[in-house]
Design a protein that fits this description.
The protein is α/β, with parallel strands linked by helices and 461 residues long. It contains 15 helices and 15 strands. Strands 1-5-2-8-10-9-14-15-13-11-12 form an eleven-stranded mixed β-sheet, sandwiched between helices. Strands 3-4 form a two-stranded antiparallel sheet.
Length: 461
């Protein structure tokens, strides 16, 4: 494969000095996909012709000294549910015949306005509804570090693409952990912004779009272009003129909470807990005020509220004739698991929805006491590649979904590996609209975490 820089800064330098052109970067991306993706199954559709035309235009701008900015010519992948005009969308399931998108999502518009080269769409599980890379449409996506391991989900292809270096920017979506969990299981950096920070065209409670990258700074560069208000999304936040790439922070005196269990009775794998403790010690040794956050939810709202409500949403999608052509072609293990929600009465579903409010209040009350809160991203390590991960996740603490319900920003960054090499994600969360704080704390940790917690990307070449 052609050697090519994998970060935005390195590509900008190469484009600027003429040692590399955007067309070269695109061809390197296509070569890498061709070499690896028959095994890893991260890619759905490659848009090679339009990508080459976009890269040609970018190459001319760089040669003329008129690039549009740091994303000009940068290869990008988008999760399959992020619409790009002309590309098919299938909800990740064989139950739906792919439909060609007629217009771009706001995310794609912002990327293309910045000159980014959208190369391909990435795979996801059926209905983007499980924390796994298993799909009746795409097959089984496989972990970047070991093909026997699960990718996590639902932005499974995006996280694998980031880890394998397909593109510096890989867009995922997240309604309960779908950016952060696969990022954790593939050692990538995944950022879930505040609800409404990145406008999308399929707005729903807790759903966000955000970047999955190898570095925090690449995610920050991306957010500078994605976080632009758009009337197509009623939840779109007003412009706050955030200086996204201003990542310097003085960690001394920062109030850092560390949580190992959102609710009593559920925690994480001891190997993960140990890695989070080591990460917390890095902050404490540098002068941060670190304290343990006891379980902050008074009851298990996620099991009784948010997750039943989300499962009912999936069940409704499965019965939407505008989405599904033949449900018998979907992953039947997933259909069976989701179908159990049909036994709940309308009263029980309303009670589930009503419990989301107190869950949000208790979450933001906790976040408001700290500048940032550390926790595991996932309570479990990556399981077998072929598993839907439904049973594996069922017994562990859920560290991600409260921040979707509350609409607060959170990220996952690698903080270590198990003895057999499975990546471990550190989740960094902060209060409402404190997106930049999350990125700053993550960037500081990225610099100070040490080699034992840092991915060796050369091992994946």
């Amino acid at each position: 494969m052609t050697e090519c820089p994998t970060s935005i800064a390195e590509l900008n330098e190469a484009f600027g000095n003429g040692s590399l052109a955007p067309l070269d970067a695109l061809e390197s991306t296509l070569e890498r996909i061709a070499a690896k993706d028959d095994t890893h199954r991260a890619i759905y559709v490659i848009d090679a012709d339009e990508a080459r035309e976009s890269a040609r235009r970018s190459t001319e701008r760089w040669r003329n000294g008129t690039p549009l900015g740091p994303l000009d010519g940068i290869p990008v992948t988008i999760k399959e549910n992020t619409a790009k005009a002309g590309l098919p969308q299938s909800y990740g399931t064989a139950a739906r015949e792919p439909v060609i998108a007629r217009e771009n999502s706001p995310v794609v518009d912002r990327l293309q306005e910045a000159g980014a080269v959208v190369v391909a769409s990435t795979s996801m599980p059926d209905f983007s509804g499980v924390g796994s890379g298993v799909s009746s449409r795409h097959g089984t996506a496989r972990n970047a570090w070991n093909t026997a391991w699960n990718t996590g989900g639902s932005s499974s292809g995006a996280a694998v693409a980031a880890a394998l270096g397909y593109a510096p920017i890989n867009i995922g979506t997240d309604i309960g952990g779908s950016i952060r969990i696969p990022s954790a299981m593939n050692a990538a950096f995944g950022f879930k912004p505040s609800y409404g920070r990145v406008p999308i065209n399929d707005t729903y409670l807790g759903r966000c779009a955000g970047p999955i990258t190898r570095t925090v700074r690449d995610a920050a560069h991306t957010m500078a272009y994605l976080a632009v208000p758009d009337a197509r999304d009623h939840s779109s936040l007003p412009d706050e003129s955030i200086r996204w790439t201003d990542l310097d922070i003085d960690i001394r005196g920062l109030r850092i909470g560390v949580n190992f269990a959102p609710v009593e009775g559920k925690s994480a794998d001891p190997v993960i807990v140990a890695a989070i403790r080591r990460a917390a010690a890095v902050f404490e040794n540098a002068g941060a005020q670190v304290e343990i956050v006891e379980p902050y939810l008074s009851r298990d709202y996620l099991t009784t509220g948010f997750l039943p409500f989300f499962t009912a949403h999936l069940w409704a999608q499965m019965h939407d004739k505008n989405i599904v052509d033949d449900l018998s072609r979907a992953n039947q293990e997933m259909v069976a698991a989701v179908s159990r929600i049909g036994a709940l009465s309308s009263l029980e579903l309303i009670q589930a929805y009503d419990s989301i409010g107190p869950c949000v209040q208790e979450t933001v009350d906790m976040l408001g006491r700290y500048d940032a809160v550390l926790s595991p991203t996932s309570g479990i390590l990556a399981g077998p590649a072929e598993s839907l991960m439904i049973h594996e996740f069922a017994g562990a603490a859920n560290f991600t979904s409260t921040f979707n319900a509350a609409g607060t920003p959170a990220a996952s960054i690698n903080c270590g590996f198990s003895k057999d090499g499975r990546p471990i994600g550190l989740q960094i969360a902060a209060d409402r609209r404190q997106d930049l704080t999350v990125l700053q704390v993550a960037a500081w940790y990225e610099t100070h975490r040490g080699p034992e917690a840092s991915p060796d990307w050369s091992a994946l070449d």
